[in-house]
Amino acid sequence: MTASFEVVGTRLPKLDAPEKVSGLVQYGDDLQIAGLLVGAIKRSPHSHARILNIDTSAAEALPGVKAVLHAGNVQQRPYGFYGDNIPLKPDIVRFVGDEVAAVAAVDEETAARAIALIDVEYEVLPAVFDAYAALEEDAPVIHPERNLTSNVSMRWDFDHGDVAGAERQAAVVVEGLYQSPLAAPAPIETHVTIASYDAHDHVTIWAPIHMVFLYRKEISQCLGIPWEKITVIQPPVGGSFGAKIDIDPHDFITVMLAEATRRPVKMSFSREDEFISTRTRQPIHFRMRSGADSHGNLLFRDVDIVSDNGAYNGWGSHAMLVAMQTCSSHYRVPNVRIRCAVAYTNKPWGGSVRGFGNPQATFAVEQQMEQLADALGRDPIDLRKQNAYHEGDVTPQGLRITSCGLDECLDRVRKQSGWDERRGRMKHLRRGLGAAAFTHVGGGARVYGSDGCGAMIKLDDSGRVTLISGSSELGQGSETALAMIVAEELGIPVESVAVVNSNTDIKPWDVGVHASRTTFIAGNAARMAAAEAKAMLFATAAPLLGAEPADLASAQGEIYVRDEPNRRIGVARVARRRLLSEGGSAVLANAFYDPPSEPMDETHRGNYSAAYGFGAHVAEVEVDVETGMIRLLNLWTAHDVGRAINPMAVEGQIEGGAAMGIGLALSEELTVNHGRVLGANFHDYGMPTAVDVPRIHVELVETIDGEGPFGAKGVGEGGLIPVPAAVANAVADAIGVRPSQYPMRPWKVLEWLDGASELPTVMGPTRG
Amino acid sequence: MADVLTPTSVADAISMLGAHPGAHLVAGGTDVMLDLRTGRSHADSLIDLSRLSSQLSGIRAEGGRWRIGAMTTIRALEDDRELARQAPAIGEAATVLGSPQIRTMATIGGNLAHGTPSAEMPPPLLVHDASVELVGADGTRTIPLADLFVGPGRTSMRRPEILTAVVCDATDGGCGSVYLRQTVRWAMDLAGVGVAASVRVVDGRIETARIALGAVHPVPLLVPLASAVVVGHSYDPGLAREAGRLAAEACTPITDARGSSDYRRRVVAALVPRALRIAWLRATGQFTADRAPINGVLNEEGR
Lengths: 768, 303
Description:
The structure holds two protein chains of two kinds.
Chain A: H1 17-22, E1 37-43, E2 49-55, H2 57-61, E3 65-70, E4 92-93, E5 99-105, H3 108-117, E6 119-124, H4 131-134, E7 152-160, H5 163-169, E8 172-178, E9 192-197, E10 203-206, H6 212-223, E11 230-233, H7 249-261, E12 265-268, H8 271-277, E13 284-292, E14 298-308, H9 319-329, E15 335-343, H10 358-376, H11 380-386, H12 406-417, H13 419-422, E16 431-441, E17 453-459, E18 465-469, H14 478-490, E19 497-500, H15 518-545, E20 552-555, E21 558-561, E22 564-570, H16 571-580, E23 587-593, E24 612-623, E25 630-640, H17 647-666, E26 672-673, E27 676-677, H18 682-685, E28 696-701, H19 723-735, H20 746-754
Parallel strand pairs in A: 1-12, 10-11, 14-15, 18-19, 25-28
Antiparallel strand pairs in A: 1-5, 2-4, 2-6, 3-5, 7-15, 8-13, 9-10, 9-12, 13-14, 16-24, 17-18, 17-23, 20-21, 21-22, 24-25, 26-27
Helix pairs in contact in A: 9-10, 10-11, 10-19, 14-15, 15-16, 17-19
Chain B: E1 3-5, H1 10-19, E2 23-26, H2 32-37, E3 45-48, H3 53-56, E4 59-62, E5 65-69, H4 74-79, H5 81-86, H6 88-96, H7 100-105, H8 108-113, H9 122-127, E6 131-136, E7 139-144, E8 149-151, E9 154-155, E10 162-169, E11 175-182, E12 193-202, E13 205-214, E14 221-222, H10 224-228, H11 237-250, H12 261-283
Parallel strand pairs in B: 1-3, 2-3
Antiparallel strand pairs in B: 4-5, 5-10, 6-7, 6-10, 8-9, 11-12, 12-13, 13-14
């Protein structure tokens, strides 16, 4: 870490913060377009039903209504994994909230009245709401059109080594069932989509989404609109946390309404719509057994995983890939058997919410590490270090571990928390400490044909540098990080960099913002483009300075001769010289970075990320054993971030992720009663308030990754992932009873103390 | 959209209420507007009481009792230092009601007249022996607060009566009270269980005691059988536990997203002894903080 940087590593407030804190930013819902109509959706009131008849005559007759659409009068094709979804449901509805019809009207009130006037006749069908119940043989089949005879939407199996043989060698074996709730990403900005056609049948869509090129492709395929006749513009995203990764049926419906009316149409969700009909964090249940030898070396892990992904697949079905990775590759386990089933249920469907299957898996794996330590009489942090991966290792799934700071992260939280002096010694105060570590992708995730991102750099006659990035800002601070990377590479002040990243007609391709990949992937692309732009500037500057390009360097907006820094010239002057001289040329550079990772093969092996992130947390709790109330007193964290491009933003990501994890651990659950979401509001949902979040202590471990831009790795999700596990382990330390699920709400704590719910009464046939 | 009427006097408001059978009174609006928006209730018109605010607000000591105007905001109750000293349970309940934004709008009269079983303010007022003043077309009547509540969302007010003030005990040396509650979040949450207790201590013995429960019965509930157990004795953990047991027996909690009936009874049994202990410590000058920990767990030093 001897390299010295001008910009990278400085604590820079996010460049877009002033607009956001002052209310100047124009979000999607703020956009005004002349003639804008309001769209609204008629949703299913039933969890599972057959549509017998839709009568739209009264709605159509209402003055001010410009279009009423349903499956009978639109052109649409199935979309999603296995084509299990379609925007307006033609025959069957599968959860309370499914889209049945839609209207466009002159104002919100008229649209709402028209929706109420649409009369839909249903034949109610038997429904199933629990993943294990859905896998029973006599459960109603939710997607018979897929020729499925059960509700298993997908299966993933992974085998490595000899689990049965390893179990015979094991000195200790621990087991348990670890369950997680239906939760909501709950961004402050609800979904909003605007669509508008021009005179050339070209449609422009404004939507605060962040997988924009895949979104455009899905619009094209589902609605039969030529791909090149779609432009997508991303207004500033007011929070997503994964909620806005999947395309939502309303996106297609808004375009259909705009096509039908030939007027711009806006569809804007209420908070209730957001909780009821948009993507959820799926409950995932782990029945897990792990064994170790008498020295504490892990020997095997045997896991049956069931994901309750709701009515449709979406990206949420693939959370299993990450869950599987944590089971096989978080610690060194030579023998692994994993059986994953994704179940359909008649509930809101799962998306790829921050952490994407990893918080759920880490809740199981990290509790088992402490259970093993207890069984062996070992310190749990020592046991983790003994079984941790190190640089150069390859995991059973073929993950190649490069930079790895897990050991140091564990050491740091051990020291910060006073672990050695305090763990196990505060039971009289009903206080406890619990640790949990995590591994997550930190160099992209090859879940699509390309994991790449394009970048373009231009300098004009003002000397202002514009980075046109394929990637998007969604509040995570990526615009700032990318501007810092470009400024560092070019040797210019960060204020001289503009970032343009929100229009598919302008920006180069990118797979999208997910998997903590933006700083790593888009950052590498930006750095490559900036390096090319710098070479152009140096080629022009060299004769002006009487030197060779190789002898030049740049800093603070000036290019100078490295050995004679007084011979210097401003970057803007060089750009003008290049542009305005005879036979001139502009500084226009571009790059496309696709990381050196591999897709998973059919056995689920492959190094699908170019780097991995690591971290460890220790939580301290106090448990009121008479009421079950848990107070989180402290959370100490240490994260291997490769290099912190902007330490202030990295800490913010970790703290924000941790706060989200605290909500999952203690209070957040989307309560569903017979498929109906109860309390679709922030009062009932249980997101933590300021007093529920203690001081979060953050330490950054910089391992300087060989592939990341300036050594950086992804940090977007890690702060959240180990929190439920760390809190559960702390509760176990405080009261000697192990939580089997989260959120650890007060009455659950009393049930655990009563020994009432160690295991569920029904275990489904999950073994394949 | 409902019509909005804006009376400038109590008499005005009463005549409007009489003339518009489908009208709702709006004080802070924090309950009424939610009810209307979610369809829990319907109003043909709204009678906005904001212009009565100066006439009906204020916290005054009057003849050995507190008189609190019905339009007094929860925030004002939270901020009143003298009230916190003499009736700490009231200040404690005010501190945890909703969020700062809600407390700035919500009024004590609204919190009582809405008749919510889990409302924050009734239990502490009940243990301070509160009465409410109701003004109708035929004059004013004063009833014990306990008689105001009839069922969830229902009160004994006779239309077109308006609740104008709450009167409760001003306590002094020898008295102590407290409000505790169980929630999932530590703020901005409805009580799963609310417990208020007050004791008057004379010559080292509890002369009078009151215990009131919220969120565990169709109405906010005084449990005299439970508080009677501790009267005549100095604080005794065994008697306090017995009071908790009796209180848990006396209530009939429902099961909902904020806990099962059985769970809530257990919490009542746990919180009542803690409340009695803190009320005792306050009455005997051993606990002087303005605010007790909301779940009543004191640290080893008794703070």
